[in-house]
Each structure stands twice: as structure tokens, then as C-alpha cells.
Amino acid sequence: MSNVDTRQVDRDSLFLLAQLRVDGQDQMYRVKVRNLSAGGMMAEGEVGVMRGALVEVELRNIGWVEGTVAWRQDNRFGIAFVNDIDPKQARAHVPVASTIPRPPADSVPASEGRRMLKL
Question: Which of 12, 96, 102, 114 has the CA that lies 20 to 30 A from 86?
Fold first, then answer.
């Protein structure tokens, strides 16, 4: 697909943070995901990558995705994924579980519940 053809591909404009690993480097980078499509993404960050570099990016709700740097301009660069993803998964809400377990409502007598509230 030429650059002109890829401009027609559906992509989700969003703002996410992701972890990025560059093949051959031990360092992990945090990048901003500026847009995301099934076949790739645009990232922004202080990462020393060149066109053609092999990378892996960890996307929320998806996990690690392999890709290749397709272009670079200043601190932004495009990644073409090896395998397509579902970009809507990355946009899905991540529920936050409560860290304090609550007892079932019928296990605490009403008088104790009121006493606990006064503390």
C-alpha cells in the first residue's frame, strides 16, 4: 500500500500511553499513542529509532504488539504492525476494582453499620 492509500485507512484519534521496546536495546520507553488503526499507529516520544527498526509496543487491553518503524519525523514516528489488531479494544474502558473488600450488606447488623459511620 502506498502512503496515499494508507491515508484512507480508518484510524482512531486518541491519547494513550504505551510502553515501547526497540529490538537490540534493553531500555523501555514510554510513548504517547496519537492515533491507532488495525495495521499501525503513530507514537510520540524521545526514542532513538530509525526507519525499519523492529519494535514492540504494549497497548492497553491488547498486550505486546510487534511492528516496524515506517517513518520518523522529529519525536513522532509511525509503526506498522506485523499482525492487525482491533483498535477499539485499546479504547475500551478499563474497570478499576476497589482495593478495599466490602462485606456483603446482610453480614453487618444495622446498629454496627451506624456505629462505624460515627467513627
Answer: 96
Give pTM, 2 decimals: 0.69
For the chain, the domain total comes to 1
Question: How are beta strands 54-59 and 63-73 bridged, if at all?
Answer: antiparallel
Assigned domain for 87 exists: yes
The domain that contains 28 carries what CATH number? 2.40.10.220
Domain assignment of residue 65, yes or no: yes
